[in-house]
Specification:
Length: about 900
Amino acid sequence: MEFLLLGSLAVRRSGTLLELGGPRQRAVLTMLLLHSNEAVSVAQLTEAVWDSPPVSPESNLRTYVAGLRKVLGDRLITRPGHGYQLAVEPGELDLDAFDQLVRDGENALTDSDAEAAAELFGQALARWHGIPTAELNAGPLLRAEFTRIQERRLTAVEKYARTSIELGRFDDVIDRLRRESALHPLREELWAQLMLALDRSGRRGEALEAFATARKHVVEQVGVEPGTRLRQLQQVILESRVPSPAALNAHRQLPMDIAEFTGREAELRRLCEPGPQTTVVISAIEGMAGVGKTKLAVRAAHRLVQRFPDVQLWADLHGFDADELPAEPSAVLESFLRLLGVPGAQIPESLEERAALYRDRLTGKRALVLLDNAAGEDQVRPLLPGSSSCTVLITSRRTLLQLDGVRSVFLDVFTPGEALALLSRIAGEDRVRADREAADRIAELCGHLPIAVALAAKRLARRPQWTLQDLVAQLERGGGLGVRGVFDLSYQALPDHQRRLFRLLGLHPGEDVTAESAAALAGLTAHEASDLLETLLDEHLLQQHTPGRYGLHDLLRSYAVEQVMAAEPPPARALARRRVLDWYVHTSWQSTRQLNPQRKLEIVRPDPAVHPRTFADRDAALLWCDTERANLVAAVREAAEHDLPEHSWSLAQCLWDFFNLRKHWTDWIDTHGVALAAARSIGDRDAEGRMLITLGIALREVRRHDEAIECAQQALAIFRALGDRARQEPALNNLGIVYMVQGRVDEALACYEQSAEIARELGNAHTEAVLLNNIGLLHADAGRFDVALARYLRALEIRQEIKDPYSEAILLNNIGEVHRGLLDFPEAVSYVDRALETFRAIGDLYGQAESLDNLGLALDGLGDRRGAEKCWLESVTLFEELGEPKADEVRARL
């Protein structure tokens, strides 16, 4: 038999629906199904069927049971003295199947398999078609049962939503959450998930509207404000403390398709053919520079998107960039993992571990990965997914024979027909048809190379008064065939100010430029630079993968470098380079002021022609750093390589907060290593010491403890030699932290005590409080709770004097932990409550999660298990939202 409760009540035998009788008889069956294989008493059935039962309900119930027995046979048995029992076999009741799917989904979450969990939760919810309340005369007990199973369904909805949001499938859940929140307007968790899904899909305004709607329902129906979770979430969205992941989404990462794409139909068909079902499909587009490999790959990728809708990743590997080193696979993997939702702190250090995690994150996903400008097999191999549901497109100037299973597509120059087709598409079909012989000659003079044909065609399109013969004469007069002759023709035809900006772009650090950075390079306003960049884009001398950002093709970048070296004297080149590096240093400084307002930085004054960008809030600053990251890293190296060491270390120290926040370990270590060498090259001991401190912190974070200690010791020696007590204090503090991590308690304590003494001597109350906290942690870890408590309380006094709520909340939480260690649970609860209140006031989600876990432990010590579990549930929710693995540790307490 098949018993259906999750919709209209129904029973099927061999596919045939059975007649179940009237509303009260159906209510009896529903109650028996909800307690299948258990005895249900007459009293329970009475309360399930009637609000006001008859004088002798037993007689009525016997009638209903007899009617059901005619349909169900010996499945329905009488248990003398206990009531009635309905026998249901495993797999027959849809509610049981729903519960099992939910349990399987929860197990998948425990195993960190979000993909499987989302699928299982979705299957569970698909079994629901409603609850048979309308067709039954349900009494109070049955209505309570319906409420109970509805709660199970809503809990599954929330788990499905949370998992889907984690996977970036926002569209899958937004419509469902809108329906559910409308049906259950007082269920705040549904509103919270809806706000998260909207915010993370880039619809921040709608997320705030959802809060306003939720608040209206709660205030009007209950007469109170929404709970803490909704209010905190609204505050986070309002203040944009965490950038919406929609700004850096793993979906739709492909460059823009090319409107003027022409030809290559045979190659496109090969690239879009389905591959084997058992292995990842790898296609390599190979050919010379300028032949159109990237354009073909982008066009193919956009055609393939429908077959690979889950994730599309793209990276320029810079395999043949004369001015940039080939991209390190480890750095590319870090970027991909972040886009796939892995928090920076959870990204492994080694290439092998990153590659393994990357493959794991793409397992089962329909993912497309586009790897442009690959240097060779070794660069590409770690970036390949392992799942047969994925496909990879690679472009390279080399043949990638050693990649297992690769399908090679060799791309030659255009055929004469393809060259004419592109010429017609850009310059006009009528013009080409009017002088086919001249058109053939233009294609020949361009060497049938796509980039050269496109540039020549653009020249014609911009000059309608020219005939094709005019262009032939121009090209032949230049004396060159192929791409160089076309470059010369396009470049020489530009006005002086456009030529100047184009060649100066050869000095710009990094992958691409914006109007602001180009303006700094050329000493222009951003408006002037924007107009010039758009003109160069129209002339096909620039390309644009994303709006507002302009790049040079490899061949054009080399050409620009040649022109700037020939046309600009060394002083002019040096001034342009200094200006653009000034812009990066001072804009980074402006971002640091938002990311860490307490930090004081001393940097060189910029050129008067440079206008650094400013930021309205932390979110905007962080988004700029994320977007410009590759250029910022390149700028540190560029400054060091061109005799601007102060720019190198100034930019590195400005980037420290960003790298620390995002956990970009590789970039942090690389840039600070370069900046350290730059400081040493001119004997600037102060800058050398500062770079050693921040480099040591990065090395400590990636557990290279011996190197971190060496950096801190060298920095300490430098500042002692310089007599700089202020700089000795952070060197000692960081040295103490590494010792503490290594378990070298006495050495750590000695460093902290010396650093605290210096802080007191210099009147640096903030630093003294930090060090007293660190000292307290050492004593607490050693079980010396009384000593730890004394240090914490003194630090708390200082914190209250200098009004630093964040640090004060950390101390309050630590004091609560110490009281717990002393088994003084009431005091522990008191201090942790204050910490939690402060973290909520300042909107620190991580601090709230930590405090809630600590509060749960204190309440458990008091014997309040229910209160403890409530705290732990909220802590787990917050840790999960933050992508923090500690969620598993707290969940284990439940």
